[in-house]
Amino acid sequence: MDEKEAMLQQFVIIYPRAHCEQLELSRITIISQTDNNQRNAIHWAVKNAHLDVLSFLLQKSGIDIMEAIDDKEQTIMHYAAKPGNIAILEALIRQQCRLDNRDMEGRTPLHLAAENDNSVALETLYHASDSELNGQDSEGQTPLLLAVKEGHYNIVKVLLSWGADIAIRDQNLCSVIHIAARKGRIKIIKILLERGADINTKGENDNTPLHNTCIEGHLKCAQLLLKNKADPLARNVFEETPLVVAVENSHTDIAVTFMHSKGWKEILLCRNSEKKTVVDKMIRNCPEAVEVMMNNCTRTQDFQFIDPGPNDPMSKEQRYFAYEVILVVKITL
């Protein structure tokens, strides 16, 4: 901790409002000073949730620190949005602090409230500001995308109730359902599907949500998506189906799920640009799935001797028996 930072912390943490008002004029210079991260006293007051000190600082005339930014270009509103202290937020709003400033990542306080799971801050900021609900940061992420990424289900529900756009893509061409699938957010996937999210939409590298969840190995998500008619034959730019990416990442349980599905044969026989199926990789990476495949591919049948039968006492050089098949493998690999 540098000397200025220590001084600012001492000022904000030790001095309550009663002492602040009795400070000498020379002490006021502390208020506008910044530490090595460009944070001033008001940043520290908000960071440490000292409402009395904050109120004193906001009342000081001639000190333009309300819009001051730190080394990440975050204002005091960004600091207030993270912990979501409602009293501090309301105090700053009464002082007409700007609510739509963006930091160096292009995020508004609304983005930070969503990312940090602060529903009170989210509602306060949304209803008090002109911040765009679907505003995107420098990576194309909206407050909804950030909430989905972090798994904040209640925040997602609130944002959707306000009309947050579920089709917006980030810079990697991923929508919220792609991110939810990649992160294994089952509850969020369900609510997104209820809101009409396209289950087969293609994102980065033409991966569908089913591709994403198969890459990461989220079994329950894969089962949910398949149950809701996700396309198991969809191909990405590498001509890979969801089964292929599951096998490449050795996610045996997901491969087994595909082999138990109704369209297993068509899924298995998909060929890549080199005219190869996934079977050889599955033998190496997911042998349990191969066992299920073989059980699917084979069937046995009984047979019986005729003329005259195995227990006939008569001696014959030949015996005749009828059968349809003993073992049939009906698949071309």
UniProtKB/TrEMBL annotation:
SUPFAM superfamilies: Ankyrin repeat
UniProt cross-references to Pfam families, sorted A to Z: Ank, Ank_2
InterPro entries, A to Z: Ankyrin_rpt, Ankyrin_rpt-contain_sf
UniProt keyword list: ANK repeat, Repeat
Protein origin, superkingdom: Eukaryota
Repeat (ANK) residue spans along the chain: 72-104, 105-138, 139-171, 172-204, 205-237
Repeat listed as a keyword: yes
PANTHER family in the record: ANKYRIN REPEAT DOMAIN-CONTAINING PROTEIN 39, ANKYRIN REPEAT DOMAIN-CONTAINING PROTEIN 39-RELATED
Name of the protein described by the UniProt record: Ankyrin-1-like
The organism's taxonomic lineage, starting at the top: Eukaryota, Metazoa, Spiralia, Lophotrochozoa, Mollusca
